């Protein structure tokens, strides 16, 4: 079963359980995936669906910081629930130690590359298992 089929099945379950919040979140996600599919004019792979989900999670996290600054606890709670639900469909995130190991491995294999250009190969290696801001922060702390 593909990831999009899993999401659609979860959407059906939410309808059966009359869980309006979950259903709303999953409908927004499936709509975003459908828009991406229309844009690409083909079925999406699981990796592409994960990219759509990651984009949704990033947007929600950006909104979450704004809600926290405005002290909107009602929206903060709702947004945290949405992020948790969507994150369940993403691959397991790398721990700091695993991320550091991946970065060191990429640095070793790309010895001739400039330090400022190492981010691209690292992001290809982690492929959705680490946020770009985490990778950037780790690169800065390692002074690479």
Automatic annotation (TrEMBL):
<dbReference type="InterPro" id="IPR023168">
    <property type="entry name" value="GatB_Yqey_C_2"/>
</dbReference>
<dbReference type="GO" id="GO:0016884">
    <property type="term" value="F:carbon-nitrogen ligase activity, with glutamine as amido-N-donor"/>
</dbReference>
<dbReference type="InterPro" id="IPR042184">
    <property type="entry name" value="YqeY/Aim41_N"/>
</dbReference>
<dbReference type="InterPro" id="IPR003789">
    <property type="entry name" value="Asn/Gln_tRNA_amidoTrase-B-like"/>
</dbReference>
<dbReference type="InterPro" id="IPR019004">
    <property type="entry name" value="YqeY/Aim41"/>
</dbReference>
<protein>
    <recommendedName>
        <fullName>Aspartyl-tRNA amidotransferase</fullName>
    </recommendedName>
</protein>
<dbReference type="Pfam" id="PF09424">
    <property type="entry name" value="YqeY"/>
</dbReference>
């Amino acid at each position: 079963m593909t990831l999009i089929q899993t999401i659609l099945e979860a959407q059906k379950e939410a309808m059966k359980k009359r869980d309006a919040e979950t259903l709303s979140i999953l409908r927004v996600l499936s709509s975003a995936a459908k828009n991406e599919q229309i844009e690409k004019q083909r079925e999406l792979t699981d990796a592409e669906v994960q990219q759509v989900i990651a984009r949704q999670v990033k947007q929600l996290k950006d909104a979450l910081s704004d809600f926290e600054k405005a002290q909107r606890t009602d929206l903060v709670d709702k947004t945290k629930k949405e992020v948790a639900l969507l994150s369940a469909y993403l691959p397991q995130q790398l721990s700091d130690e695993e991320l550091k190991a991946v970065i060191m491995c990429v640095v070793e294999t790309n010895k001739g590359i400039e330090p400022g250009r190492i981010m691209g190969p690292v992001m290809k290696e982690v492929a959705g298992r680490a946020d770009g801001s985490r990778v950037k922060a780790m690169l800065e702390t390692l002074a690479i």
